[in-house]
Amino acid sequence: MNLQSALAAETDGSTLADRIREILPAISGNTSEAESGRQMPLDSVEMLRQAGVFRALVPECYGGDETDFIEFLEALRLLSSGCVSSGWFAGVAATHAHGITYYPRSAQDEIWADGPDTVISSSFAPRGAGKTVEGGYLVNGTWDYSSGADHAQWVQLGFRVEGEEGLSYLGLLPRADYEIIDNWHTVGLRGTGSKRIVVKDMFVPEHRCWGPGLLAPSLAPDLHDNWIYRIPFIFTATNFVAVVLGAADGAVEAYRSGLTARKRAHTDQPRIDNPLAYVRLAESATDLRAATALARQHWNTMVHSAKTGSMPDMHEMTMARADEAVAVRMAIHAVDRLMDAAGGGALRSEHALQRFWRDIHNAGAHAWFDLENKLVIVGRHMVGLPPDPHIF
Q1: pLDDT by residue (tens digit) across 228-252?
Q2: What's the 3-state SS for the chain?
Q3: Of 72, 91, 111, which residue sits at a domain end?
Q4: pTM
Q5: pLDDT band at residue 363, thresholds of 50, 70 and 90?
Q6: Tell me, what CATH number does 299's domain have?
Q7: Domain contains 389
Q8: What confidence tier does 310 reach under pLDDT thresholds 50, 70, 90?
Q9: Domain residues for 88?
């Protein structure tokens, strides 16, 4: 997709998924470059920009598309079925735009001063320290796992303020105010470039801060009318679920397409003649349908609440935390089953299945999907105990 066609897409009625589908072969073709370079290729970033990914959740008044949130998640899943790293990077960048709407209007004006395609990376864990000074905070710290850092114009970082025990904030810093350390050496999601951020004695004005905590209310509650901005920002982390489901989609297709051509080494008989080969495919596809149903139930509940201006009850909110983690665990098991059945050829570096297998395990290691911790949250709720403050 060139720039002219991308601009035309804004008025031709195409959906985000339509535009992703158009660029997917080229994005998928860049996976080797993404892995070897350990970050998104510039060409892929530009294609995502032209497809409207970065502006998908940006408010209309800043030139954004205000894309329906479920439409966004389904498009992200499609993207991830071709390149999981691209899906992870795109999901992070797009949902960060949603989070910016929680900051004061003056911060939003700064972020989107040059247009709606601003890329923002992050590291939300409050690893930094902030000292209160006139007009804001003096921040220091080191943060890991800032996906897409090399392509971002801004970063959101979590920090604790001296003297405010237990309270954390997010602060926005422009690219000139921090250093990127290239420490992203991983088995999977190599193309996300989730590198280390270092900040030394940088002033962050109060208007570029939001908190305390990731459940804090918006500091500009009446600025945007669209229902998508009534979705609590922390819930937009469900974009990671869409990425994992897309990775499993890609793995299922890689196994299916390979199965039709694969033959036994010693007998030259087609593997497809063995019922175990396609039964494993069917079993994994069924597991993926079940995982999808769990995820979509959560998505639909979240969207219904936002559209109606209500909040889901505490039981639903608590169960959703476990549902997402269970869905991801099911998707990972589905891919593991296919990898076990695919034979030694699937371990070759050029085989797509091993890449999806590595990527989905790397994605599943994210703290958002820590199933055992989520089950502790659900179990405590079910027996009437308060949440454990030490569990995320």
Answers
A1: 999 989 889 999 999 999 999 999 9
A2: CCHHHHHHHCCCCCCHHHHHHHHHHHHHHCHHHHHHHCCCCHHHHHHHHHHCCCCCCCCHHHCCCCCCHHHHHHHHHHHHHHCHHHHHHHHHHHHHHHHHCCCCHHHHHHHCCCCCCCCEEEEEEEEEEEEEECCEEEEEEEEEEECCHHHCCEEEEEEEECCCCCCEEEEEEEHHHCEEECCCCCCCCHHHCCEEEEEEEEEEEHHHEECCCCCCCCCCCCCCCCHHHHCCHHHHHHHHHHHHHHHHHHHHHHHHHHHCCCECCCCCCEHHHCHHHHHHHHHHHHHHHHHHHHHHHHHHHHHHHHHHCCCCCHHHHHHHHHHHHHHHHHHHHHHHHHHHHCCHHHHCCCCHHHHHHHHHHHHHCCHHHCHHHHHHHHHHHHCCCCCCCCCC
A3: 111
A4: 0.91
A5: very high
A6: 1.20.140.10
A7: no
A8: confident
A9: 3-111
Report which of residues 330 and 14 the model is more confident about: 330
Residue 170 confidence (pLDDT): 96
User: Does residue 313 form part of some domain?
Assistant: yes
Collect all residues with Cβ–Cβ distance below 8 Å to 132 and sequence separation of at least 6: 161, 162, 163
